Amino acid sequence: SFWNAFFGSLACGWCVTRRISFAGKHSAGGAAEGMKKREKASAMEDLESSLLRIMQEHQQASILARGCTEKAKKDALRTATRVSELLVHTVNGGVEEAFINEKRIELEIRALINTVLHYTKQTNQWLAISHAMNSAMKEIGDFENWMKTMDYDCKSINAALYNIYKG
């Protein structure tokens, strides 16, 4: 029959393991016909219960498959999140290190600027002292020159007065 051919062709052999038979027995006579009808009715009930069982098993398999799919999806999402976190941590680690190095360099630059300003101020003080000493030396040199000029002038005046007195 069609149902035996259909269920016999199923790869899982579901009908075979449940001993479902859809073929009626050929017999002659009224009793045989009544029995044939009862067998058909019984076969229809078996068919309905078998189809109901198949549908229930399919629904359970679908629910299990859906559960497995959801679990796999959650696992994949968790794994992707972890990979993302690791990548961010790796990238941020380098950025954080660069940021710390930048801060250290900025602090060293500020310290260097303060040191340069201190030495600039000290150099300017030394330069001012040096100019003051040079000015003092010039004044001493000018005073010495003035003294020589005065000495010469005094000698000239003294010689002139001596010549006038003797003369």
TrEMBL record:
Sections of the chain in a coiled coil: none
Family statement drawn from the similarity comment of this UniProt entry: Belongs to the BLOC1S1 family.
Any one GO BP annotation for this protein: endosomal transport
The name this protein goes by in its record: Biogenesis of lysosome-related organelles complex 1 subunit 1
Pfam families associated with the record: GCN5L1
A GO CC annotation given for this chain: BLOC-1 complex
Highest rank taxon of the organism: Eukaryota
